[in-house]
Amino acid sequence: xxxxxxxxxxxxxxxxxxxxxxxxxxxxxxxxxxxxxxxxxxxxxxxxxxxxxxxxxxxxxxxxxxxxxxxxxxxxxxxxxxxxxxxxxxxxxxxxxxxxxxxxxxxxxxxxxxxxxxxxxxxxxxxxxxxxxxxxxxxxxxxxxxxxxxxxxxxxxxxxxxxxxxxxxxxxxxxxxxxxxxxxxxxxxxxxxxxxxxxxxxxxxxxxxxxxxxxxxxxxxxxxxxxxxxxxxxxxxxxxxxxxxxxxxxxxxxxxx
Length: 257
Description:
Strand content: under 5%
Low-confidence stretches: 1-36
Strand order of the largest sheet: 1-2
Order of helices and strands: HHHHEEHHHHEEHHH
């Protein structure tokens, strides 16, 4: 208990004691003609700190974010190779990763903050109004990203993440969660992606206005991350999910989901 809290507690105790003594004296005397104002209720207990579900050991964050991000990008290039790294956006990468991880379990995940480059080409559909569906060829657009996921060494990636975790945590707090814990949000986002359904293909669509929507209301109500998994096709989604399970297992110390 810090000094300021001790002072507050002491003042409260003294106030309650004085009020109690005053009330006891009043009971020993004849009832007064005026009502006695009751003492104020004690202050509410401070809110408990959020519980950390998946703590992660990491060194203290280095003072220079820019230099550290450059070092991390260099380590990623050694791990993935230049060709794979070309799929990523390396400017403000840590902030991009944090913002995207936080957004994926929500209804919208703006592409402007993604750490990967947008999937090339246009969304490929088949059929016409009343019979629209995602074309089988659409999955090919996501194949390089699924191949990148497959090539990642989960343990090396998690080790790199742990080394720079202080920067991820700082970026998460700057995003608007001063008491949040980024690793818990990461596990939550991974679990949400793993829960993405794998509907029978072709997946039916509707186009009420300009944008396409899933014809199945259940699919349309899913999170932004789960919709991405559906759009990439079942084969690619299975590849990504397999790697996410590996990463989650390493992150949580081998505990099964």
